[in-house]
Model the fold of this input.
Amino acid sequence: METLEVYKCGVRYKTALHKHADKDEYYFCTCEKTAKGILITEFDEKGEPINQVYTKYGDPESILKRYVLSYCTVHSILVKETPSCEKVRLKVLCTNCNRNEVYRELDLVDISLVGEIPVVPIFRCGSCGKRYYSLSDTYLKKLVDENRGLFENDEIKMREDNEKLFINTLNDNIIRIFASKKISRISVK
Done:
């Protein structure tokens, strides 16, 4: 019976890398108690977000266990207390200073004071402060699936006819919004 280790530091939990039950890929999750609820974020092994779930009620540890056990190949979870929290780092170089210090912005603040969680995960270089957003096609597709009611019928039809064109169009719109706020998209290969 395989056991997954989860590291707890204050109100933050982070799993070790684990394999997805129906994919040949590895992931890790974070689970954090915020000012208004509990945020679970699933990342691929490069640190790119692939899913984010926010709930207003419940115990973070129980919610994380339920979430991970719903898709993971492990059968149990072992929580270990740790004195320091490991930040989520993207495995990319900052395009501004060329350093490998691009961290999830939520890891750089006191998460228990955060009331509003950005739909698009934001990252910041720990060296020069340049801000990025990370939005993989996988994450964007899940976001659309979970919020179909926000889209017009012609947009849904476009997705059904040509999903790649639909996703590219969404990405173009998102790029324009973030560019106006001087937040760059980071490409994780």
Notes: The chain has a mean pLDDT of 88.
